Amino acid sequence: ALGMLQGAPPGSKIVVLTDGLANTGVGALEDASDMAASEFYGRTAAQIKNAGYACSVVAIKGSQCKMEVLG
Fold it and tell me: What is the pTM of this model?
């Protein structure tokens, strides 16, 4: 999602929609420790903030998406 904002003006917004736990790729939560995932999502959030963008995460209630790790 960050790559799609390349060159976008500050104030642009990323909206992430999820139906459950991130289970593949660099942000996988299924097999990773919460510490590793927290670091990954923390770095991503810092990049978004430093670029002047906003990010919203929309999840299905009860979907086990670990919102506390996503931020």
Answer: 0.73
